Amino acid sequence: MANTSHRPPSTPHRTPGPLSGPRQHPGPDARTPLAPLLAALRPPAEVTRTFHRQGHWRAETVLHDLYRGAARHPHRTAIVAHRAHRPAQSRVLRISYGQLAACTDRFALALDALGVGPADPVAFQLPNRWETCALLLACLRTGAVAVPVMAGYGAHDLAAVLDAAQPRLCVVPDQWEGVAPAQILTDLAPQLPWLRHRVVLADTPDTAGIADTAVSADAVGAVDFGAHFLRTPHERHRPAPALPSGLADRVCLAVTSLGLHAAHSMSLHTPNSLHAGLGPDPGPGGACFSALPLATLPALLHAVLGPLTRGGTVVLQDVWDAEDALDLMAAAGVRQAHATPAQWAELAAAQHRRPRALSALRHAVTSDPAGTSAALAQQVHQRLGAPLRPAPLGTGPARADGACAPLAVWRRESGGLAATWQPPGRPATGDPVDPVGPVDPVGPGEGGRSRPGSEEIGGVFLVPVTEIEERLLAHPRVAEAAVVACTDPQHGELACAAVVPDGDPPTLLELRAHLLGQGVPPAHLPARLELMGGLPRAATGELHRRRLQGALARRLARSA
């Protein structure tokens, strides 16, 4: 598959849909398919001209960068992927630029053979593996919309994502960390009439010792990813089509966020809004590692799209382990690494136990600046040799209508499609889109203001803080309540409920049962309860979250 003669096509294959903006914006509870709306959605021409003139947007995409890299340096390493459960001799895979370009074309033809076309949503619930990157690029190649789903989502949350996106196809692994996503998707299939194909990615070497959870594609009547995507030479029977016209301004990615009662929103990005979110170039040809799931926007931006745009190397680990991560970073010469504060604490401790040569590391990036203490930043700098900082900002301003803002936000059950920019004469159709908060390209609280009423915590799993607090206050023995992030050495960043009791203090179990009765999903329940005499507040009366988080961190440190 090492075809190295890749050049971005210049002839359009299909004509684009209608002009700027969707013609209809369904209201709440609308069952309108998402694909036709995505096909019609474009930024207004004046917005496009402005951002092109300012240098934030461009006519090309990461695919053009990939094909150029494959033509000029076909043997340069594009991806280094660590597979935790494989035998030691085959645990680390290296994919060259030539191989990645060839796989992108083959995967795109495989999608086309399954009936996937422009603007069709394609969901994939995969861990951080090289196939995830290739599938993302293949969706862009065909003009489809990639819908990455958290690998840790169970049946309830997966169903919510699929119901909102209504994808034509969904890819899941046969098993992952003791769970069988292939079986979960099979059980959900009767509820998903629009889902044409279920695809199962098997990883035979991984099943040693854990075969009891693996489910084959044949066993569940699904398409075998290896057979259809990897081993079928689609390119022998028909050439890859030209890139769709105007690809840089078409919706290519839907980043999902779940709230209470499976209230769901998707931030819809184009190649240009993603490109504007990359931030400053950390250096030519560098390797970038992310411990965050590839279903999160910061990981996709800074650890996948950034390196491939700049001729660097993507470094992935499918199952988190600090010791393995450091070995991988040292071997790959990682220049930039992204992780949660809890993961950085683990990395610093592991490096202290067994130092590795990390001389290439220049940028240590935290996913949660507010949850990163000065002591942790100092520890990371001393032991890993790089300052711990927030994610880099994009090239555009951190504004609701900035260059790195999503093109629109889709909320199927509450408001339909809310476009960021409205063409002249067209009335607004939804709430203003704010890229800071749950759809911020650089993560909540990084370089921008908070979105009122929709703050989220809990690492990459995004617990809807305001909604949880409102339901805690409905408990008869709770006078005041706040939900903040706390770092657990074993489980990472968790949601902590800080409660001022009214009368007899409630227990954590009582509060969790109360929240479940209020319809809160189990994944959003607080994992810790801290009883307080009062909550710190600013002069305006608003909760001072940073001061509260600091007080709780000191309390937890004293009790450790």
TrEMBL record:
Region annotation Disordered: residue ranges? 1-34, 417-455
What InterPro entries does the record tag this protein with? AMP-bd_C, AMP-bd_C_sf, AMP-dep_synth/lig_dom
Residue span, AMP-binding enzyme C-terminal domain: 467-541
* Residues annotated as domain AMP-dependent synthetase/ligase: 68-214
Q: Which domain of life is it from?
A: Bacteria
Locate the compositionally biased regions of type Low complexity.
430-443
Keywords on this record?
A: Ligase
Q: Which family does it belong to?
A: Belongs to the ATP-dependent AMP-binding enzyme family.
Protein name according to UniProt: AMP-binding protein
Annotated organism of origin: Streptomyces atriruber
Q: What is the lineage of its organism?
A: Bacteria, Bacillati, Actinomycetota, Actinomycetes, Kitasatosporales
